[in-house]
Every structure is written in C-alpha cells, then in structure tokens.
C-alpha cells in the first residue's frame, strides 16, 4: 500500500504561502442534478479540511479566492446565496479559528459586500486578530487589476501632496501599497476544476509562484489533494531566471 502521502513531504521545503482558486462548485452540483448553491455549500467543507491540512503542516499563510468582482455579475439569486453562505460560514468557523489559532484576514473591494456580510467579516477579523499559527486571507469581491490600480492611485496621491518623490517609486513601494502587504508572496498557486487561468487573481503576487492545476472540483478537493499539490511543488526547480546549475 502506498505510504501516507503526508509522510512523503519534505518538511524543510514547504511553501510558506499557498494561494488557491476554489473553482468547480457549480459543475459539482450540476453533475448531481442539484442547484449550484448546493455545490457552494459543499465547498465550505473543503475549505475546513484544507485549513486543517495547512495547520497540520504548519504552513503560516493560506489565501483563498472566495468571490471575484466579476462574480457580482452572476444571477442575483446565486450572489445572494453566496453572501448568505459567507455570513453563516464565518459565524460557524470563527470558533474553530479561535481554537486552532487561525487569524482571519480579507482583501478585495470589501465595501461592496452587503452590510451583514461585512459586519460578520469585521467581527471575526477582530476576534481572531491575536492568532499567530496561520493567516487565512479571503479574497472577497477581489480583483487584482483593481488592487494594482488602487495602489497606483495611492502613490499618485502621495506625489501630488508632495509626500513622495516620483523617483522613489519602485517595485517594493508599489508592493507595500497592495492589499496583500505585508503577506509574503505565494510560492504555490492551486486551481481546481481543470480551468487553467488566473481569473484576475493576485497578478502581481504570483509573478514567480509555481502553478498547479487539478481537474478535481473544489467540493472534492481535500487535504490529501493539497498534499499531492505540495509534493508536485517540491519536485519543481525554482530558478528565478537563473540557470539550473546556478540554483543547484
Ligand atoms: C467557484 O465555483 C466558486 C465561486 C466562483 C464563487 P464556481 O461557482 O465558479 O463553479 P463552476 O466553475 O461554475 O463549476
Ligand atoms: C474564479 O472562479 C473566482 C473564484 C474562484 C472565486 P470563476 O469561476 O469566477 O472564474 P472564471 O470565470 O471561470 O474565469
Ligand atoms: Mg468557476
């Protein structure tokens, strides 16, 4: 029998930040002749399991693409159901996050969220603020292009007010004005459901991430699938523009 996959992982070579595009809830439900919302509900169970998996390995940062700005254009009923699910899940999961040392964080155009969702989000973020084991960032109403444009705007404003010299603008400064700051860059980005695209997710931050695509639909994605992705990540040679000889 195959040894437990978690035991095959090199603990000294774990990514410190994993970003995931949780995709395929709708198709998962459709395959079962159910409404899309059913898939979203099932997807919450995967979120719980993946957080457990990340905690087991001691990975300090996990970022989940939960809702994109583009997703606002979905049918009204689906959007409403997703927002309801967000509120109920946060309420339920906060206790678990407190027990396990998970600190909740959120990025995106949060002001677009319904008041109820925003309030429960802020409450949970405040309640878990002192936790240190893992930072769980939810990308909500998130658009990477919008995030970058807002950073550019903030820098322009500083220049306009005479608080910043144009020549002082560099990659580091722009990075510091992204919503993800001060999170480290994800080393591994996983997308479920077989789609091989970025869909406006962390465009700047993923510049050198290893990308892992799996046909598994999000509601079926569990910690063993996560370990499989990390195993694959550990086989990659991250060269950062150098030659293979240089990095060896
Ligand atoms: C991901 O699953 C969840 C969100 C985007 C909110 P989808 O709802 O995109 O599922 P598919 O891609 O239609 O199967
Ligand atoms: C990306 O999934 C957004 C989230 C997973 C939250 P989508 O299903 O919205 O992406 P596209 O439309 O297939 O690119
Ligand atoms: Mg999708």
TrEMBL record:
Entry keyword annotation includes Metal-binding: yes
One of the record's GO molecular function terms: transferase activity
Enzyme class: transferase
Residues at the active site: 23, 71 (proton acceptor)
UniProt key word Iron: no
Binding residues annotated for substrate, in chain numbering: 24-28, 36, 40, 68-70, 72, 74, 191, 197-199
UniProtKB keywords: Magnesium, Metal-binding, Transferase
Its EC number(s): 2.5.1.-
Record-listed Mg(2+) binding positions: 23, 210
Cofactor annotation: Mg(2+)
Coiled-coil residues: none
Record's cofactor remark: Binds 2 magnesium ions per subunit.
Self-association and partners: Homodimer.
Listed HAMAP family: ISPT (MF_01139)
Family note: Belongs to the UPP synthase family.
Functional note: Catalyzes the condensation of isopentenyl diphosphate (IPP) with allylic pyrophosphates generating different type of terpenoids.
NCBIfam families attached to this UniProt entry: PRK14830.1, uppS
Protein name per its UniProtKB record: Isoprenyl transferase
Organism per entry: Olivibacter ginsenosidimutans
């Amino acid at each position: 029998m195959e040894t437990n996959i978690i035991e095959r992982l090199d603990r000294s070579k774990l990514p410190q930040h994993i970003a995931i595009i949780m995709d395929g809830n709708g198709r998962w439900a459709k395959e079962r002749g159910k409404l899309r919302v059913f898939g979203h509900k099932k997807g919450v169970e995967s979120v719980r399991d993946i957080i457990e998996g990340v905690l087991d390995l001691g990975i300090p940062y996990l970022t989940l693409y939960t809702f994109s700005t583009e997703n606002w254009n979905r049918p009204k009923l689906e959007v409403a159901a997703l927002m309801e699910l967000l509120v109920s899940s946060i309420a339920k999961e906060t206790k678990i996050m407190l027990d396990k040392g998970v600190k909740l964080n959120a990025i995106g155009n949060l002001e677009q969220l319904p008041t109820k969702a925003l309030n429960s989000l802020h409450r949970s973020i405040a309640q878990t603020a002192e936790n240190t084991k893992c930072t769980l960032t939810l990308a909500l109403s998130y658009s990477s292009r919008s995030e970058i444009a807002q950073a550019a705007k903030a820098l322009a404003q500083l220049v306009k007010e005479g608080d910043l010299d144009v020549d002082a603008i560099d990659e580091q400064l722009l990075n510091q004005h992204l919503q993800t700051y001060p999170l480290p860059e994800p080393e591994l980005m996983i997308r479920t459901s077989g789609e091989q695209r970025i869909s406006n997710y962390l465009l700047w931050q993923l510049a050198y991430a290893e990308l892992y695509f799996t046909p598994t639909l999000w509601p079926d994605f569990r910690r063993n699938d996560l370990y499989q992705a990390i195993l694959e990540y550990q086989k990659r040679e991250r060269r950062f523009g150098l030659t293979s000889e240089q990095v060896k």
